[in-house]
Amino acid sequence: LKKLGDVPVGLRPEDVQRATVAAAREAGADFVLLDEESSGETVLEEKVGLVLRVGAETSDTGLRALAGLPLDALEIAPISEPFTVRRLMELRRHSLLSQTPLLVEVTPEIEPSRLEALREAGVTGVILDGKSADRLSALREAVLSLPARGRRGEMRTDALLPSLTAAQAAEEEEPGPDFE
Q1: Domain count along the chain
Q2: In a domain, 80, yes or no
Q3: In percent, how much of the chain has pLDDT > 90?
């Protein structure tokens, strides 16, 4: 594998078996892209990142189950046009339910505003096709020039309500009549 400086390099093998993942690691891959039909033993490989490709149709239960697997990230299908709030909601659902970092494939010409929107939706990294490696520095510049994360969520106030279990515990602790 040709390294691109400090940029992680990954492989997407055709048939992903544990031996394939081990061979990719030995060849210098930083991570291997898996799909849902990859051999279950692949998750036992160490010293190489494991990124699972999931689709928008993955159920909430399926996404929650991913939280317990030794995965380093999820790859989400490339963003299609039109880029809508619904698509951002799908990305956020994947991020929140799986509790796993999200990666999404982008074109080298992606606009900084779209990168910022992806970040706000829970995307923590982008994938650039190896054929576009010559445009990597421009993409890196775009990522590094993004403004700091918004604080919109920090300005929200949350209502604090007592839980039912706390109320029940308080009732049980009330002293009874003193018969002394």
Answers
A1: 1
A2: yes
A3: 27
Q: Whole domain around residue 15: which residue ranges?
A: 10-149
CATH number of the domain where residue 82 is located: 3.20.20.70
What is the C-alpha to C-alpha distance for residues 98 and 74, in angstroms, rounded to an integer? 9
Which pair of structure tokens corresponds to residue 84? 């809508």
Which pTM does this prediction carry?
0.72
Return the pLDDT at 3: 57
Instruction: Please give the angle made by the CA atoms of 152, 158 and 161, to the nearest 5 degrees.
Output: 170
* DSSP category for residue 81: S
Cis omega before residue 82 (within 30°)?
yes
pLDDT greater than 80 at residue 45: yes
The pLDDT of residue 80? 77
- Residue 125 domain-assigned? yes
